[in-house]
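Example record

The entry below shows one chain as it appears in the dataset: sequence first, then structure tokens.
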Amino acid sequence: AWLITYYPLLLIMGLTAVASLAGQSWMMSFMAGFYIVFGAFKLLNVPAFADAYARYDIVAKAFRPWGYVYPFVELALGFAFLFWYEMRAASWIALVLSIIGLIGALQAIRRSEAVQCACLGTALLLPMSTVTIVENGGMAVMAAWMLFVGM
């Protein structure tokens, strides 16, 4: 059941990881692919994404328009990583967004809320779980690595 539930996410992450082997830097290429693909899924239905995201994201709860802007921020980050544009700024933004996402996921899971993760928009329904925590935590670690260890 777990594999069936998370198959779309695992497929996307796995293909992104393999495709990233073709880039100059695996981590940079992975982050580019991650943000472009995840942002694109959110663009399929931005209003529905914004509604779902506001159920658990700490910024979107307080400032509703953030849910409408977020997919475009992800796409911009993806293209910044892809083209190695303003890497320090992109890494800081990725780190902050990942930590904010991690906090929201932890809070939703701690409250045992039955919330759908909006990580792939609303086209693919995935439950909020430890997978969401690993996803946000992993992106935070990669962004921190690029900032403090090197790209």
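Notes for this example: The chain is about 70% helix and 5% strand. Residues 36 and 75 are 5 Å apart (CA to CA).
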